[in-house]
């Protein structure tokens, strides 16, 4: 009996996915577990595995279609079998509420846990010539954007890396003045096609910045106690397990959010949903963009647990081997530029969340205490909040609550 | 240098070789009194007489079989097939006898035989008289296959073929007898088994021969207007195949299109592309594309016939595809 394969749901906030490519064509044989198609969500490109064996009888949607979660995308069955349902339908119609329930519900475990970006890094698409030039000149192809069909790296892509900055042009005009001019290097414009990740970031953030009324509250935190405590804790930990300032901040943020459920929320239409779990997202820089990895139930985990999870997930994100679970389910996000000596910055809300915390560097600065100027560690953080959900006073109180934890870090340990 | 037609060039080659060597003679259908179906041997009968210009019955196996016998006893026959499609009637002699006699008899015989055959489509002669089956004949070791694309090459290669002691199939194209080109004055020959760069360029290599050369040269001119400089390598001989200029050119351009008039499947292009991948894999910067005849019996209807044959726009779009 024919089985319908549906658009999988890969995250609580995933409403739809783009079907980028059919890997199996109509008429192809397919085994359970074979990759049927590639889909792109806002977070990653994922391979959809078939949950049935047989022959691909029908593609219900076309390549490039944006398909709602759980909507059927293909039918797999026995060769020659008549397809009972699902004449190719317009994607829009799948959204209609009175649509009949689908015969087959999607199975979450039918979805590959692998992310295709990891596949593409192990099999770099490059012409034999490009590969040879790269090998001879020790150029890492994984850092290159191919300009050939389907992103294939070709000779000129590798050569452009090799000659960058090498070309210089000296003016040929006969000047009576002695030549005091430095030769002007001629740097050419470079057009780089955006990656899927870059496009997803762009789409989401344009949506966020243009539809969410952001407001911002900045607070300066006294970090002396926390920095001392971190030093003490790390003295007892092996190098690969040392906790970071950010781990403390995640824990403090989660504990504060537990008391400010309105900032651990989302708004849809006329309803605000305050999430039960506090899952703090951490923005991680990855090649070509950034991803948010998520520490589930951050408020209930120990510092070491938080630290270990973030390290593992960030590592996977940077290697392009992130699991859907790593990036799924955040209820509040944080972005930390502390390592770059940043005084203050503001972040754009990561939809559908209601707020994001931008954390700057802890710096040793002159501070006034009891009329005396002395040196002290200070760190600024700015929260961006959806004004449809919350107001300035609530955000400011949240930032104060955060101060209670950050400035008295022992509270996080008990 | 005189600018003469392909027909005149072939005619001159035949006449010069007949004058040079009394063992050379011509046999075939309508080659004598009528002067040849494509008028290549016009005037030959009057000049050389019935002993050296032999009209034969319509029996291709008799023409080729007889020519093989004559060659085995020391004559230098130039047998003509009115069209290459009739070679199928003489297939045993063409591919089973001629290429193997020298080998099978331990070198006791040589076979100084030239079979001239007219191939190609485009003259609305129907599916059975319009084929370009060159690849079939190039498949057999022992049979040399020559197919020129310019009057100069036609003359120089045919003269070499007649002087050669090996059996040679010399394929002319039915639509190219009026093609004009510069041909050196006086005596010259061109060695068999040497490909030639007919046009220099840096962006893309087109490998082709015979009719494909004419089309590719025109396509190259169009592409040149868009700043694409095509290098064209003319195979001239399909067996023995000289890949050296092809590989050399490919190593320079890294991208290639192969143009042939025959069908794509199992064709000349398949052979060329395979060899490039085998011999210059590390120089490949884009998949190589073959331009060839559509996989149908060639239609009689003029519009359909032209649609089935490879055309200049096909070459231009293949070139652009490869250069993407």
Please render the helix and strand layout as text:
The complex is a heterodimer of chains A (414) and B (324).
Chain A: E1 3-6, E2 16-22, E3 29-30, E4 35-40, E5 45-49, E6 54-59, E7 66-68, E8 72-77, E9 111-115, H1 116-122, H2 128-136, H3 155-163, E10 168-169, E11 184-185, H4 196-211, E12 214-222, H5 224-235, H6 245-259, E13 265-268, E14 271-274, E15 280-286, E16 289-295, H7 303-318, H8 324-327, E17 332-336, E18 355-369, E19 372-386, H9 392-407, H10 410-413
Parallel strand pairs in A: 15-17, 17-18
Antiparallel strand pairs in A: 1-8, 2-4, 2-7, 3-6, 4-5, 5-9, 6-8, 10-11, 12-19, 13-14, 15-16, 18-19
Helix pairs in contact in A: 2-3, 6-7, 6-9
Chain B: E1 2-5, H1 6-20, E2 24-28, H2 44-48, E3 53-55, H3 60-72, E4 76-81, H4 91-97, H5 101-104, E5 114-119, H6 134-138, E6 144-146, H7 151-163, E7 168-173, E8 180-183, E9 196-199, E10 204-208, H8 211-225, E11 230-234, E12 237-239, H9 244-253, E13 256-263, H10 268-279, E14 289-293, H11 302-308, H12 312-322
Parallel strand pairs in B: 2-3, 2-4, 4-5, 5-7, 6-7, 10-11, 10-13, 13-14
Antiparallel strand pairs in B: 1-8, 6-12, 9-11
Helix pairs in contact in B: 1-7, 3-4, 8-12
What report would you give on this structure?
The complex is a heterodimer of chains A (414) and B (324). Chain A has helices at residues 116-122, 128-136, 155-163, 196-211, 224-235, 245-259, 303-318, 324-327, 392-407, 410-413, and strands at residues 3-6, 16-22, 29-30, 35-40, 45-49, 54-59, 66-68, 72-77, 111-115, 168-169, 184-185, 214-222, 265-268, 271-274, 280-286, 289-295, 332-336, 355-369, 372-386. With 414 residues, chain A is of the alpha+beta class. In chain A, α6 (245-259) crosses α7 and α6 (245-259) crosses α9 (392-407). The radius of gyration of chain A is 26 Å and the shape is globular. Chain B is of the alpha/beta class and 324 residues long. Chain B folds into two domains: 2-183, Thiamin diphosphate (ThDP)-binding fold, Pyr/PP domains (Rossmann fold), CATH 3.40.50.970; 196-322, Rossmann fold. Chain B has helices at residues 6-20, 44-48, 60-72, 91-97, 101-104, 134-138, 151-163, 211-225, 244-253, 268-279, 302-308, 312-322, and strands at residues 2-5, 24-28, 53-55, 76-81, 114-119, 144-146, 168-173, 180-183, 196-199, 204-208, 230-234, 237-239, 256-263, 289-293. Classes of the chains: A alpha+beta (414), B alpha/beta (324). The A-B interface holds A 127-132, 148-149, 152, 154-155 and B 254, 281-286, 324.
